[in-house]
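Hi there, hope your week has been kind to you so far. Do you reckon you could talk me through the fold, stretch by stretch? I've dropped the whole record in just underneath, so have a look:
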Amino acid sequence: MIGIIYDASTLEDSCYIEVLPDKYKGECWNASSIFFTEDNFGYIMPAFEKCYKKFNYYAFNEIDIDTWMLIIMELEKMKQYLSDNPNPHLLKDVIGFTFAYSEEEFMENYDTNLMQLISMITDFQSWIKEKSVSTKFISVLGM
């Protein structure tokens, strides 16, 4: 299932990307955070790499709200591309596949995965906009 995890208590191990609506304060698995599996975050990671040049998948990235607005716009471009019934073989030019098997798994249920990814992006954009009202930073806590 492609989507956002909103409840830290449902996480089964530690292989998740945490998105914290604040600066990192020495604590992970925050109740106010949302979480992505590695594969799900990987799909949208190109937007981060393009808009936040210092992005590091393995580090704690404290990203200011102005940069998040750029990320939202890049995610919108990604979402529009996905909504236009793209050639499946050209997806890797737009979305990220974290592992060698990620692209193959995505293609196995292409139509469903495409719809779920568009929905995840929309939900993430809404979450970012909601949190940007009350904080100056949103952190991506990597692996």
Summary: Residues 8-141 form one domain. The chain has four helices and four strands. Helices lie at 38-51, 65-83, 102-108, 110-132.
